[in-house]
């Protein structure tokens, strides 16, 4: 059904804290709205980013410190090197 949440789909990825520059970029793109937490996700999986192709972004369920929770993918950059081509995604913590 269109608009219904998809079933969880495990992927292999490296998840790291976002940099200070990432936070500045995200806050600038969101009219200065404060971002509580953000992460970088490195993977070769093709994921949906919020706002691209009229789709909702995929979500990452992250249970690790310092800020466990559900993160929405909001940005992507291809990292297509000759060694290991992959993508770098930015995701922000969803607040209730």
From TrEMBL:
> Which residues lie within the region annotated Disordered?
1-27
Name-wise, this protein is Uncharacterized protein
Look up and give the organism this protein is from.
plant metagenome
């Amino acid at each position: 059904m269109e608009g219904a949440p998809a079933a969880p789909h495990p992927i292999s990825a490296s998840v790291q804290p976002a940099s200070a520059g990432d936070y500045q970029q995200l806050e600038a793109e969101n009219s200065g709205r404060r971002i509580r937490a953000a992460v970088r996700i490195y993977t070769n999986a093709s994921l949906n980013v919020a706002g691209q192709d009229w789709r909702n972004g995929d979500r990452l369920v992250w249970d690790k410190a310092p800020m466990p929770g559900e993160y929405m993918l909001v940005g992507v950059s291809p990292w297509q090197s000759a060694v290991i081509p992959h993508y770098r995604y930015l995701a922000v913590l969803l607040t209730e």
